[in-house]
Write a structure and sequence with these properties.
There is one protein chain. By secondary structure, the chain is α/β, with parallel strands linked by helices. The chain has two domains: 212 residues, Rossmann fold (3-Layer(aba) Sandwich), CATH 3.40.50.720; 29 residues, no CATH class. The protein has eight helices and seven strands, in the order H-E-H-E-H-E-H-E-H-E-H-E-H-H-E.
Length: 268
């Protein structure tokens, strides 16, 4: 049966106004961007980050567009941390509807030069903490009984290798994609959807140098863009559509997917 409101007013499928969204890594490039996108769409936000100064900046940006915000200066480093984040969310807002896991890290080194502890640190930040947050939030969503949205921040490097010492990062993002598929299957019957966004190079404080008009930046861009059918690097607004889709009712029939926001990079 076709829902008539979806046909007559399809924009309502993307409405998340009033929804409660937890965003981890809210002080980082993608987390802060995700928070601002959700704030602009009318969500109520729980912003989680370990960098208190940057967290305050994200909080201010979200409040500037009228969002109700709870800022938690905490990292999802353990089961206890993740449970506390959910508990604080429920105490403040009464429920949770959306989880965006944008926390994580990279550590670049050739495998022969990387100590095992450094590899495990990347895996913990990107994989274990993602699993722990999904577990803590998922338990609450299952108790609520009316579904929910889980969105992981993956990377094109979960699918593709890299010659410059990305063995830890590539492995961790491939694992995130695996968790996405597994939980998509596990929670499919419950109304909770689990998906991931996998960007390639996007404009952010960390990649700003690649957008500059310097000889080095031009050389790096030339080599990279040879693989990108769209012929450009990613801009922040290129993430707005995918995130809003995966966080809203519009994606109710989509789960276990990794959506590549890469200008066609992984297609070629």
């Amino acid at each position: 049966m076709i829902a008539e409101d979806a046909i007559r007013q399809p924009h309502k499928l993307f409405d998340i106004s009033g929804k409660v969204a937890i965003v981890t890594g809210a002080s980082g490039a993608f987390g802060a961007l995700a928070a601002r996108i959700l704030a602009g769409a009318g969500a109520r936000l729980v912003l989680v980050a370990g960098n208190q100064h940057a967290l305050a900046e994200t909080e201010a940006a979200c409040k500037e567009v009228g969002a109700e915000v709870l800022a938690l200066n905490r990292r999802p480093s353990s089961e206890a941390d993740c449970e506390a984040i959910v508990s604080d969310t429920i105490s403040h807002f009464g429920r949770v509807d959306i989880l965006v896991v944008a926390s994580g890290k990279n550590d670049v080194a050739k495998i022969t030069e990387m100590a095992p502890a450094r590899f495990l640190d990347v895996m913990d930040a990107n994989v274990t903490q993602s699993w722990l947050m999904a577990r803590a939030v998922g338990k609450r969503m299952l108790e609520q009984g009316d579904g929910g949205k889980v969105v992981f921040m993956s990377s094109a490097r979960g699918l593709l290798g890299h010659p410059a010492g990305y063995s830890a990062y590539c492995a961790s993002k491939a694992a995130v994609d695996g968790i996405t598929r597994a939980l998509g299957c596990e929670w499919g019957p419950t109304g909770i959807t689990v998906n991931a966004i996998a960007p390639t190079v996007f404009r952010s404080p960390l990649t700003a140098w690649m957008f500059e008009d310097t000889e080095k930046a031009q050389e790096v861009r030339k080599g990279f863009l040879a693989r990108v059918p769209k012929g450009r690097l990613g801009e922040p607004d290129d993430l707005a559509g995918p995130l809003l889709f995966l966080a809203s009712r519009a994606s109710d029939f989509y789960t276990g997917h990794t959506l590549y926001a890469d200008g066609g990079y992984t297609a070629g």
